[in-house]
Amino acid sequence: MSDIPVKEIGELLDEISSKIPKIIKGLLDTMYSTESGEKMGQAVGAFYRELVKSEIPAEEALKMAKDYMLSLRDLTGSIGKVTKWENNK
Q: Which of 11, 20, 29, 33 lies closest to 87 in space, CA to CA?
């Protein structure tokens, strides 16, 4: 017989799967708060300023800052899709 504790692994996975949606919801609530929006704006602005300070042309720095912001949005959107999928199971 195998020494793999199948029952214990199953119980562990059940426990984890019950907690993950709550963790993701907490992350989303944090990411979509007013405070989070302010911090994101500050982060994107700081990123842009650093690019310009590093002598990246302003137009290119603006494009890079927009791409950075869109990446953050896409990341939060992906997390949101996982949460909706988990809640609909």
A: 20
